[in-house]
Amino acid sequence: MNMTDLVQKYNEWTTNLPKIRPFYAVKCNDSLAVIKILSSLGCGFDCASMGEIKKVMSLGVSSDDIIYANPAKPISHLQYAQKVGVKLMTFDSVTELEKIKKYFPDAKVVLRIRADAIEANVPLGIKFGCEPEQAREVIATAAKLQLNLVGFSFHVGTGCKEPGAYPRAIRIALSLIPTANEFGYNLTILDIGGGYPGDASAGFYEISRLINECLEEENEHLNGLTLMAEPGRYFVCTAYKLATTVIGIRETKNRVIYTINDSIFGLFNCVKTESIFKIPKQLNKCRQGVLKSSAVWGHTQSIHDTLVDDCLLPDLTIGEWVVFDDMGSYSLCLQSRFQGCSLPPVHYMITDEAWRVVSKNWRDTQNI
Prior knowledge:
alpha/beta; TIM Barrel; Lyase, Ornithine Decarboxylase, Chain A, domain 1; 2 domains; eight-stranded parallel beta sheet; six-stranded mixed beta sheet; 16 strands; EC 4.1.1.17
């Protein structure tokens, strides 16, 4: 893990989106090192469960720096949030409001609005988000239950491929503020969710440009609102590389099939859930030769364990190391135990300059 990359990503965020405080989506990668570094830089945290809240707070993070961003919370998790003082939380339905009223009546609730991107790897609106036309009914229920509605949130979808989805969603959320005002609410939060790309593409810069343009145009409607977001893969994707070895080679008429010592049941869950295919690189670049049609399989006996079905690779040998880039998001956290899958060791690196930035803001950096 390159911890310097994480520091650079945080600086990149504050440079390009200075008005919006990031709340890191812990579900993406719950490494203690990631949480510690981001906390030392001033990041907040988006937690989706009691376990994530416990982990984050065990590192000294204040309850005020956490949003419980799960519109469907188990009762026991809700009670735990009340116990430790995590008041800020999302919801998207009347039934969730009724549950919150019963078990955490002094919570600060944020209505999650559905505002899907036209194209995203995972369109979360299928599962979460109140339809804008139903918001009045939900807001009215919050008022009837005397709950403290403090803002709106949305999530355009994981792996958003439509930069224009963000300004559109912001305007949808802002259009509902007068409705909240009608019921006596003076909102203080606008949470613009996640979906920001984590790779080296220019996508983030286009998204941030459009968001900033929108905020400038809608400035008069933002008065009194604290802006926040829930980036996950943006922070950690490029900070990790995975080194694996070739454990099997089979040549067919049309291609060479390589088997490596990882799997879709290990760190390559993204193949199943997001159709993200990663091409390996030779660690020993001196051995590069003619590229051949190839496939890469995982080590389990599942017929579904195909990491890359069609790619061009040079001749590889048994025991040779190959490296996969951009492995920091939704990899380690989705590891299963199928057929003996286990987490690989993680080795950390950081530059002196980045270490000085991190260490001056965290009292326990020697244990990262």
